[in-house]
Amino acid sequence: MALREPMSTRDPAAARWLARLAFATAAAVVVLLLAVAGRRAAALAVVGAVGLTACFVGGWGFLAYRGVRRWCAAALTLAAPVTVVALYVRAGLLWLVLVCAAGWLVAGVAGRAALGRTGRPDGPVEYETPSPRRPF
């Protein structure tokens, strides 16, 4: 069993402020994306989703097949993110994608820190139960 810090050292006010920071950062990222990219935000999302899908399909193909098909899938896995980045650079939106990724990272770290300060036990309470006499 892991050692837990005493309840007196956990600050619920700090957890609330970290949760607020997480929500505010996530909202700011969405507002920034819509304000800067405008109508191109939908195209930005579609290009990213297609690239991510192609990368996952290539990874699955690399694990599922052998021979030439395997190496074609590996090439797809490597080429998909490179193509997406090239399209973002061509559209002049790479800086926006990097800023949004950093914002989502900050939001995730703040949310994780807020949940880590709740003072609740690590898991549900476990009870000892007798073995079943007739399992089926």
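Second entry:
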Amino acid sequence: VAPASPAAPVEAEAAVTARTTAAQPVAAETAPTTEFVGPVSAAPQQPALTWPVSGTAGVDSSRPFNWSRVPWATNYWLTIGTTEGGSDILNTGPLPAGQTSFAALPPFPPGVPLHARLLTSDGKDWTYADIIFTAAGR
């Protein structure tokens, strides 16, 4: 059995109605129909790096990394490495929930694809968003 394709994204607080109407006994294949009404909330907003974004070339470590803030975060954690999920270049440790940038970046190796991971905690679990970028040449 093939997995179902993902549903289209739902706008936050989209109007949805739920009304079921009994079908008239006209044909055996006629069945009740359902129409949805009422508010539906989308999945919680996820943080993302806003500088640099994935695919950016010429990233200079003198410019701070920035990310979007989410209201449910209790901590952020930024790593940069030469492999996906790696932290051989930077490992900030936990950062406060109100922080949305990090400026104390080490020099990046020029021309090498680098991986940044922004981890976000809700106080219980950690989620993350990855990007790949290339450092500026020296």
